[in-house]
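Pipeline run #58 for the internal structure catalog. This entry was flagged by the ingest filter as a single-chain record with no existing model, so it goes straight to prediction. Upstream metadata was stripped on purpose; only the residue string is passed forward. Reviewer on rotation: M.T. Logging verbosity set to normal.
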Amino acid sequence: MSSRTGKTPMHSAAWRISLWATLAFALGTMLVFFFLQSFVEKDIQRRSDGWLSGEVETLGDVAEHTPKDALYDRVLGEVAELAAREVPNKEASETEPNDAVFFLQSGSDGSLKLWVGAGSGEGHLKAIQATSILPDQPSDIRVPGFAVPFRVASIRIDDGSHIFLGLSERDELRVLRSLRLRFFLLWLLIVLLGFGIVFLTTRRMLSHVREITEAASGIGHSDLTARVPTTDRGDEVSHLALTLNRMLDRIESSMHQLHTITDSLAHDLRSPLTAIRGKLEMSLSTITDGEHVDPIVSAIDELDRLTDFLNKSLDVAEAKADALRLTRSAVDLNELLRVMIDLYEPSMSEKGLRVSLESSGPLEIHADAALLHRMVANLLDNELKHLPPSCTLKIELRIEEGSAKLILEDDGPGFDAEVLAHLFERRVKGRDSNGHGLGLAFVDAVARAHSGTVTASNREGAGARITVTLPLDSKESHRPLASTIAATS
């Protein structure tokens, strides 16, 4: 199956790598901004505090040297208004032209003596009196009716009065707000651009890995000559492709050696067995004494069993090594089962066994027809050997979750508990079995060679169940089921 099946960009490795890389970059840049904003905020406040401290000292000096006559308030007020015009980057309010800076002088008794600024100044004086403001240490105060706080510096003059100069933090907050907005837009643009670059780069890099995966997924079951695609980039991915191809070369060589050994072994063993059988059959045709016929017939049967044991042992060994050679073609499982049931019906009827088939009609898969015939023969042989007379065998063939399911259920004694967990291993058989313990191991080997599975269990009450699952072609998995057909032998 292709690795592209059901794959969406959000579930790809390129998406995850890009997401985590972008998240790390976004958090890092956000942390840098916090430090930058803190530095800018402290620098602006330091400049504001320096301006306030310098101007409040100037105002204090003017207040001390200005005669306390009728012109005192006018002179000091004009100086305060002049200082207000010197505020850098001041943005005037739409309602009050001088609401960013205020000047306030309180008497020794705490009363309001002189005010320059927006409003009456009473609210400012109450806010100042509610806050402990130390000389040379500007502090924040909040005045009712103003959305932003004021930064206030103070100085005490010789007559016991205090002079306060306040600067609204509106312009500072405006600068910081503008800085945050611009950084956020720039940060968002860089993050999105970075994500796109990382995603496209990673996806392009991993596309070759995907090609290698798709090519490798089709190698092994029936073709060991194919190889994964390679490039001349000289990077880690190209080295991976070259390494996989070298590994496939070794695997192909090992499989070729295994096939050569098994073929030679089979030939070396079958030749003498066939020769012995031929000689026994010739002896049987010339013997007229019935007394010597039975031993020869028995010897021929034993030779046939030995040949069958040899064939199954070699096939199981190759299947366990994933080296079973397949010749795939279109196989109708329904037709195959009917032919095999017809073939075994006389033997089962002779033993008093009943067999029935429930099928969903023609069911075609792409498989090795000869191996499937032998697999079904082993299943029926197993039932024929171990079921007591008068038992019933039910065979069901259906499509389930995109796979063909072959289910055999009987009402016999079931599997021995001690061998049930190891039923598909070689040379595992029940207490009363006189076989070699290879029949179900061969069934498992054929199912595995076709990327399928086989399971066995005991039914509730009595009997055994064996389920063989074989994958369907995609076109078969969506075909509507035909009406159920039951055939009884």
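catalog note: The first strand starts at residue 101 and ends at 106.
catalog note: Confidence is low (pLDDT under 50) at residues 1-6, 474-489.
status: ready for reviewer M.T.
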